[in-house]
Amino acid sequence: MQQSHKAQSTFDYLILTGVILAVIVPLLFFSTSRIDSSRVAELQDALGALKDGVTQVNNLGFGTSSVVVIRVPKGVTEQHVGAEQSSTNPTWCGKSMLCYRVAGNDLHVTVPADVAGILPLNEGMHYVQLFNNGTHVLLYQCGNNRREAFEQCDGTDNSACSISGGSGQCSLPSEPNACKCRCFNNNDCSGSTGLCDINNGICIP
């Protein structure tokens, strides 16, 4: 009799476990799907904002610069800017494209310009600098305290900047001329380009 009750209890436990799993597993799958969809939508918004920025900078011509603020969600694994088709580049991203991969989805937008540079991968808010150099619209990140790509400076990494012999000063990521050395005259740009745009107070790229 005791063995019968024990067997019944084990059977009931298995039934209960099965019911719980039947409820929880679909919920977890649905939750994960919603999170992935949210990441995709967020990244599509970011790509759309970048496309608008590239279009504007391209239309305004050589020397035009701008800053686009985007938010990158968690889980982004790849980025490509204007990738030429080759054995080492993805087939889903080509020339004049801005591309991201997140949650197994390959996302891209086509822009009306030749583009080069890098896009941020880390989760969070980012200031992406755009600059028209006459042949391409260049994209790079400003605000990580590391001078890279086409930046003259970046935050505390400002050794190339020198205002009247004083300490280096770099324009902020939120400014239109982000990550460029501030200046009052050409001497202030001796460590970068040697030419000062006096009207805007920054060294000419």
Q: Short summary of the structure?
A:
With about 200 residues, the protein is of the alpha+beta class. It is built from 1 helix and 9 strands, in the order αβββββββββ.
Describe the protein.
With about 200 residues, this protein is α+β, with helices and mostly antiparallel strands. Helix content is about 30%, strand content about 25%. It has one helix at about 1-60; strands at about 65-70, 75-80, 95-100, 105-110, 115, 125-130, 135-140, 195, 200-205. The strands form three sheets. Strands 1-6-7-5 form a four-stranded mixed beta sheet, covered by helices on one side. A three-stranded antiparallel beta sheet has the order 2-3-4, covered by helices on one side. A hairpin with a 4-residue loop joins strand 8 (about 195) and strand 9. The longest helix has about 60 residues, at about 1-60. The radius of gyration is 26 Å and the shape is elongated. The model is unreliable at about 25-30 (pLDDT under 50).
Query: Total helix count?
Result: 1
Strand segment count: 9
Mean pLDDT: 82
The strand order across the widest sheet is 1-6-7-5
> Radius of gyration from the CA trace?
26 Å
Biggest sheet layout: 4 strands, mixed
Give the distance, in angstroms, between the N- and C-terminal Cα atoms: 89 Å
Helix content: 25-40%
Order of helices and strands: HEEEEEEEEE
- Secondary structure class reads alpha+beta
Rough outline: elongated
Low-confidence stretches: 27-32
Strand content: 15-25%
List its salient traits.
205 residues; alpha+beta; 3-stranded antiparallel beta sheet; 29% helix
